[in-house]
Amino acid sequence: MALAPGTKLGPYEIIAPLGAGGMGEVYRARDPQLGRDVAIKVLPAYLSRDPDRLRRFEQEARAAAALNHPNILAVYQLGTHEGSPYLVSELLEGSTLRDQLLRGPLPVRKAVEYGIQTAHGLAAAHEKGIVHRDLKPENLFLTKDGRIKILDFGLAKLTQAPDPSGSATPTLTEGTDPGVVLGTVGYMSPEQVRGHAADGRADLFALGAILYEMLTGKRAFHKPTSADTMSAILNEEPPVISQTVPGIPPALQRVVQRCVEKNPEQRFHSASDLAFALEALSDATSSPTGAFAAAKPQTRWVWIAGAVVVAIAVALAIWFSRPPAIPVVESVIQLTNDGEPKPGEDIGDLETDGARIYLTEGLAGNRRIVQVSVSGGETAQLPTQLVNPAIAGLARDGSALLVLVGGAFSQRVSMWLVSLPAGTARRLGDMEVGDASLFPDGRLLYTLGSAVYVAGRDGSNPHKLAQVPQLLTYAPRASPSGDRVLFSAIDGVSGENAAVYEVAADGTGLREVLKGGQSSVPADVCCARWSPNEKYVTFQARSQGTWDLWVVREGGAIGRAFGSPVRLTSGPLSYTGGTVSKDEKQIFVTGSKAKGELVRYDPKSGEFVPYLGGISAYDTTFSRDGKWMAYISFPEHTLWRSRADGSDRLQLTYPPQVVVEPRISPDGTRVAFSTPESVAYLISMNGGTPQRLSDYASAPDWSPDGNAVVVGSLVPGKTIGEKAYLQSRIIDVRTGTASVVSDSQGLVGAWFVAQDKLVAATEDQAKFSLFDLTSGKWSDLVSDPATFGAWEPSLDGKYLYCTTLGADPKALRIRIADHAVETIASLKALQQVNDPYDITEIGVAPDGSALFTRDVGTQEVYALTVKWP
């Protein structure tokens, strides 16, 4: 279905259709954040249900996003709109090469120039291990300023890029099954026609066919049927160019002929070689008139032309050797491919000793430490007996890791030093902290509540370094010289006021150096860290649910102003981490592509099977009659409603609002939900403006009569020791009055299981309790030392469905009447989504089936090659 002008796709607003493009429809749209027009390609819903089409569409984004070259279309972001994926790219003004060729052959000089540009673009792709495999005039765009742009990497073969050092350097990895023919008839190489493996030389064959067509106006291989054309590619030579167009230089004909050789070994060795050959032709045979000359120029003009060429070459060499004005990412290389979840953000840092990268893998409650070579390859687990560890720092000499250990939902964790490579662990001090890292001399730097502390190497003699009242501090980092500290801070209740602070190592000069929402930086900023030479600070910022890496020139001394922030990445992956390599040539990051698949556990087969077609939905909730459902789209976190069979869908909320924990009212007319900032809302099932119900409220749930909503509350300015003060409140939605649930301090997630009964969990989520509204008393329901992850009452309130965490996670069903516990399924083999706002989840379908969201996205480690000023 065509998108009307004004339609919103994430932050982008559709302006007008531009026509078909590859596998989807292309639209002109406006990016309000950066004030520019972009192109958006949308894969129609009926095609997105085709796994192969969807794979090709996503592969196009992955391939193009891995490249940064003036002759390749720049891709900015990959998103989803109403179940249909879309690709955001630069907006091109001009026409395709096919449009140009419809008017006949091109002048020789233009054909050679376009061939040179295309060869340079292919060379950049081939260097990253990416083979296009569908090069044709339709996929070459000629901009108004005469630049060629290579489009549509939907059939790209993502292989392993060659490494000049001789070591393995894995990049994007995805091939094609043997015997599968992919490409466009007329431009496919003989090896593609046969269904054999194709490398970069297949693209050179296609470019040779395109050069032939540009020079002659006729296709090199064109027969009445596809079968005849494929036979000609295998067995026939194209007519000699000079027979069609007299006066073509013989050297140019030989270049084209070498490109379309049947045997790949007889073609040019690389796209760079082809570009060099074409450039030599262009320089050697040009005349002052700009046309290819048949006559031999006078000797004097040869010397003059040669001098001009040399001067231009020297000027270009000087120009391209000049450093850029700002840091620029030149390439992106994938280092891991183990398919394991990697938390990213501020949970588990990436650390490098120059040879290895250390990282945290696994979901909450079952995290582990692994390592991988800086050049990529297999990951290997670091042997340690610690349960659920997360990396926080690396000793300067690379001898040990600082590791934080705590439960899945622990707000306070202990600090341990893990030796390398043995994995022997010892605890540092007896304090529990929020976050930590190391000074270069081995001293501990940690946060606790609103303060930042320093302690000795063994945790002794702790003292406060700095404090930012009313904010929660985390992600502390000392400068390589050890004289300054950066740390992040945020309002722990509202999630607002995100900022990065700097303070001297002696506690003086505390100041805010980066503020979310200012200087073009998104509102969410965190996790700043220095480059080894202390010239730059990297940090990450989140916009519309996607993290990007930013860099800023640091002040040079305490109190000196930082430079203007520069955005290094712009999707389509979400990048977190930002660890600069020891040689400062690369930045190591975790790149994530979020995608979920709604599944139902089938007890008969013991399998998790797609539910409602496997839509990317999260936090599903149903009306009591089982006829309607509401859910959150993943990863956009917008609220949708539909009938229980998935029909009659309607989007209820829109970015930038992020929705969590929706619940449908008993009569199916409204949805209660909350936001990460702990604000509860009500919205009609027919859409409209959300009604603000309460601040400092989360996880709203309706009473069976629909007259009240119970919410979890964080009481501002009040703590229990150093922990936030939690309690539950019941809000009458008719009057807005609220009452506190007796003795609910320290309990989370109170939900109704009957009109007079609530269920809640302790803050550490190790025990469920029941509250009788009539007697005003709490009683134990069930406990589990592994801790619970998520829970959801059945529609009739007779059961509580829940998940457990740890090394052997399970889905359980607890009968409220007699507290009997039944294991539904093991979740060990089910990789659930690593959601940034919820750790894990469970839903209950009207028939009593347990619902989950399976993670079908990716989280891998990448190396960004950066050119610094």
Description:
The two termini are 46 Å apart. It contains eleven helices and 59 strands. Helix 4 packs antiparallel against helix 10, helix 6 (200-216) packs across helix 9 (250-259) and helix 9 runs antiparallel to helix 10. Among the domains are: 8-90, 2-Layer Sandwich (Phosphorylase Kinase, domain 1), CATH 3.30.200.20; 97-285, Transferase(Phosphotransferase) domain 1 (Transferase(Phosphotransferase), domain 1); 328-594 and 859-867, 6 Propeller (Neuraminidase), CATH 2.120.10.30. The protein is globular, with a radius of gyration of 30 Å. The chain is mainly beta. Strand 14 and strand 15 (368-373) form a beta hairpin.
Helix tally? 11
Q: Can you tell me the CATH superfamily of the domain at 328-594 and 859-867?
A: TolB, C-terminal domain
Query: Helix share of residues?
Result: 10-25%
CATH architectural type of the domain at 328-594 and 859-867: 6 Propeller
Sheet-strand content, in percent, reads: 35-45%
Strands, total number: 59
- Which class of the domain at 328-594 and 859-867 in CATH terms? Mainly Beta
Unreliable segments of 5+ consecutive residues: 159-181, 284-305, 307-322
Judged by helices, strands and strand pairing, the structural class is: mainly beta
The fold-level CATH name of the domain at 328-594 and 859-867 is Neuraminidase
Calculate Rg over CA atoms. Answer: 30 Å
Q: Span between N and C termini?
A: 46 Å
**Widest sheet: strand order?**
1-2-3-4-6-5
Q: What would you call the shape?
A: globular
**How is the biggest beta sheet arranged?**
6 strands, antiparallel
Mean pLDDT: 84
